[in-house]
C-alpha cells in the first residue's frame, strides 16, 4: 500500500516564476521522443518557487526548473530539476509521474515582497521596485511650487490706497472731507481678504509628501492580476518509458520582477548563462495534477 495519496492531486497556493531563454546546453537529457521548444536557437526554460497551502491536498514549498517542450504537435513541460520540503510529495511524484523530486530546506516569505531560498541551490526575491516605485514622494516637492503665496506680494501692491492721494490734489478742504468717504480705501482692506494666500495653504495639503515618505517602504498592494486557466501536459521518464501527465491550472497572474541567485557549482548554476524574459507572480493558484 503506497504511503502517499493517489492521483489526482489538487494543490492550492501561490508562486513566483521566471521564463528564460538559454543555450541548448542548459537542458539535460529529456524523455525519449520529447524535444525542447527552440526560439532563435535558444530553448525556453522556467524556474519557479511555489508555496502550496493547506487548502490543497498537501502543504509544502517547492523550487523547480522545467523546459518548455513539444512532442509531435503537443506542447508542454518536462521537469528537469525539482526540490520540495515534504517527503510525501517527493515519494508520490517519483512513483506516479517520474518527477525527480529531491528534498531541500526552504525559507520563504512574501510580506510584503517575495524572499525565497532553497539552501545551497538558489534564491529569488522581488526588489522594492517590483510593485512600482513610490516616486511620487519626490514629486511631492512640488509643494515648493506653492510659492504662489509669495506671489501675494501683489498684496503689497494693494498699497494702491496711496493712489487715493488724489484727495491731496483735491485741496479744496471742504471737498477733502470726502476722504472720510473715500475711506473705502479701508475697504481696500480686502488685502486682508487677499489672505486667501492662507487658503493656498494647500501646502497644508502638501502633507501627503510626508505621508508618501512614510509609505516609501510600504509598497502599494499589488494588483490582483489577470485570471488565467491553463491545461498542459507534463512529460517525464518513468521505468524507461516516456509518460504524459495531465495538468490543469487556474490562477491570477501579474507581472513582477524577480532577481535570482544560483549557488556557484550548484545544480542550477548552468542558469547563469540564461536570460530572463518574463517574471510573473501567481496568486489563487489551484492545480489539478494527474488523471482527470
Please give a structural write-up.
The protein has helices spanning 87-97, 136-139, 148-151, 154-157, 166-169, 173-176, 178-181, 184-187, 190-193, 196-199, 202-205, 207-214, and strands at 9-22, 35-36, 38-39, 42-52, 60-71, 74-84, 101-103, 106-109, 115-118, 122-125, 226-238, 241-255, 259-262, 275-289. The protein is α+β, with helices and mostly antiparallel strands. It has two domains: 9-132 and 222-289, Beta Barrel (Acetoacetate decarboxylase-like); 137-214. Strands 1-4-5-6-11-12-14 form a seven-stranded mixed beta barrel.
Question: What's this entry about, in short?
Answer:
This protein is an alpha+beta fold.
Shape: globular
Q: What is the mean predicted local confidence, pLDDT? A: 80
Classify the fold: give the CATH topology of the largest domain.
Acetoacetate decarboxylase-like
Which residues sit in consecutive blocks of at least 5 with pLDDT less than 50? 132-188, 190-194, 196-202, 212-216
Helix content: 10-25%
Structural class by secondary-structure content: alpha+beta
